[in-house]
Amino acid sequence: MIAPDLPHTASLRARRLALAVPTLATAALVAWLACLAAPPRDPLAAAVLVLFVLVMAWQSSIAWQYAYGALAARLGRRVQSEVERAASRVPGVASGRSRTAAVVAIHAEDPAAVFAAIRVMARSLARGGGDGGDLDVFVLSDTRDPAIAAEEERHFALAREWRAAAGPGLPAIRYRRRADNRGRKAGNIDEFCRTYGPDYDFMIVLDADSLMTGATMRRLVRLMEENPRLGLIQTVSYAAGRDTLFARIQQFAVRLYAPLSIRALDTWQGPDGSYWGHNAILRLAAFAETAELPVLPGRAPLGGEILCHDTVEGALFRRAGWELRLLPEEGGTWEEMPTNLVDLLGRERRWCQGNLQHLGVVGLPGLTAGSRWHLISGILAYCVSPLWVLFLALGTWQAARDGNLGLLGYGLTLPGAAAHALAAVTVAVLALPKCASLAHVLLDRERRAAFGGTGPLLASAALEQAQWVLLWPVLTLFNAGAVVSTFAGRVVRWDAQARDDRRVPWREACRLQVDAIVAGAVLAAGLLYAGDPLLGLWMAPVAAGLLLSPAMSVLTSRSDLGTGARRRGLFLTVDDTAPAPELRELASQRGQPLPKACPRTPAALLAEEAASAPRG
Questions:
Q1: Which of 5, 230, 293, 599 has the fewest CB atoms within 10 Å of its CB?
Q2: Listed residue (49, 46, 12) closest to 422, CA to CA
Q3: Helix, strand, coil % over all residues of the chain, rounded to 5
Q4: Please, which residues bridge with residue 174 across strands?
Q5: Going edge to edge, which strands form the sheet with 211-212?
Q6: Rounded to whole angstroms, how far apart are CA atoms 543 and 524?
Q7: CB-facing half-sphere around the CA of 124: CA atoms within 13 A
């Protein structure tokens, strides 16, 4: 059995204070320095000051998460949970003590792609040994379109034939389509729990684009078996498997910048973890009993059925006393992501509405402090976008009026020691997340090798930052609009996601991003009218990002540019330099170019570094 964690109310409180205190102190320091450097003399200046303080408070919280994550990564096992320490020694083989259902909830997805991933996971389970009776795979369909449903049934029949002919050790593959898709995905999972729940101890929840190795599935099961307090284990599923330039850049960025943030999250949250909706294992009966979603009062978009249900289900699950744990570094678990900017913006609009609904959930009685913060941080992540837009708009107006960048330039052009200190603190806050993440990789030979070596890593990071400078204004403006439209009562449709390497046409990009073009044109015209060269230079990246957003959508949606970047050693991740067999097999099943290991694999790079190291 896993040894119980030491009670740890005091320890957990200390960990949280170690993150909260420097965050609040930095936010207070920025506010104090801003008041000294740019004391407000009229309503416009006062508004700019308040907005600057608010957005920098949010950025301070992000910066300290990365600093905290870097320290936690340095401390290693001393700050890891007992569950994570156990994961390093628990084998990924079946114990025979329990039964698990791996459920794939789908709605109008590509059946060929879904069942291709299922065959890959089934073979991975078979390679782990056993008769396959410990785990069954379910496809839970909510598809309404009869043509797509017929294709699902056809591919299910093919999968059953394949299983019968492929030999022993494969899990059972089952398919069910609901007649009534009330409650969307949450209702789909709930119906499964009520119908099939008594037959299984655990449930691994997967999305249509999820992939998980058999060893990882069975390791998760063993961890649940050995710790009866665990209600859920959430893995970190990294994006992989797509080849548009946009997807490759995002896959690289997430691999590079997410680990420290995730390490910080696991360190402060402890057993108050969150549920991300997929690539997680749950104790089935306990989840079904405790995580039933409420229906929010009022009309949509803020009332009615909860759309971003996973975080709420996790909060309710934790409220019942079950531990929710995160495994920050468990490998063998992947997902896919939007392959172009247009589809990403569509997902952001849906997620914005879903997270703002949590305003009606955060006050539910009995939730733990950690669960409430998960809900609040999701709300704030979207609500900060309108603040940024207002700050940039009013700050530009003030700078044009006064002939000085002021707080818009973080104090860089203001006189006095307070302004200089403000500029230093602000630049440090903004730069710390990416710099800390890059240092975390560069200081470790194996991590450097996973990204293709130092040179390719630095070149890719520089190009990713250039792309981010142009992308950030578009995302911020779009999310600001999504927040405003949600509060204004606009309801978004939650349709099936486009997951393929889709090339965006110019007409679609211009039509869907006309607001960015208009905003960029207004900003550019204002800068020309102001006639201030320094202000124009400072705001040029924002104007350029908005005006060029349709071009960026079209060009970065090209797969030939993505595969070309890979051939040149750019935007590589460990899934390129040392691809798992499951990723290679899935690419083969889908007819994609196989992710062959790069010529300079991590092992080769490590050998080169060892050979070139100075001899003592």
A1: 599
A2: 49
A3: 65, 10, 30
A4: 138
A5: 211-212, 333-335, 238-239
A6: 6
A7: 25
Q: Most distant CA pair in the chain: distance in Å?
A: 80
Q: What is the helix (H) or strand (E) element at residue 177, kind and residue range?
A: strand 173-177
Task: Tell me if 230 sits within 8 A of 224, measured CB to CB.
Answer: yes
Q: What is the pLDDT of residue 264?
A: 97
- Give the C-alpha separation, 347 to 345, whole Å: 5
Mean pLDDT of the chain: 93
Q: How many CB atoms lie within 10 A of CB 439?
A: 12
**Which residues sit opposite 372 in a β-bridge?**
none
pTM: 0.93
Element (DSSP H or E) covering residue 9 = helix 9-37
Q: Residue 589 — very low, low, confident or very high, per pLDDT cuts 50/70/90?
A: confident
The phi, psi pair for 257, rounded to 5°, reads -100, -15
Pairing of strands 333-335, 211-212: antiparallel
Cα–Cα distance, 405 to 537 (Å, whole number):
11
Contacts for 40-45: CB closer than 8 Å, 24+ residues apart? 44/394, 44/397, 44/398, 44/401, 45/398, 45/406
SS3 category, 105: strand
pLDDT in tens, 350-364: 999 999 999 999 999
- 100 phi/psi in degrees, rounded to 5: -130, 145
Chain-centre distance for alpha carbon 393: 29
Residue 180: count of CB within 10 angstroms of its CB: 8
The answer to whether residues 110 and 500 touch, using CB atoms and an 8 Å cutoff, is yes
- The CA–CA distances, whole Å, from 123 to 117, 126, 214, 333, 545 equal 10, 5, 8, 15, 45
- Pinpoint the alpha helices (H) of 205-293: 214-226, 245-269, 284-290
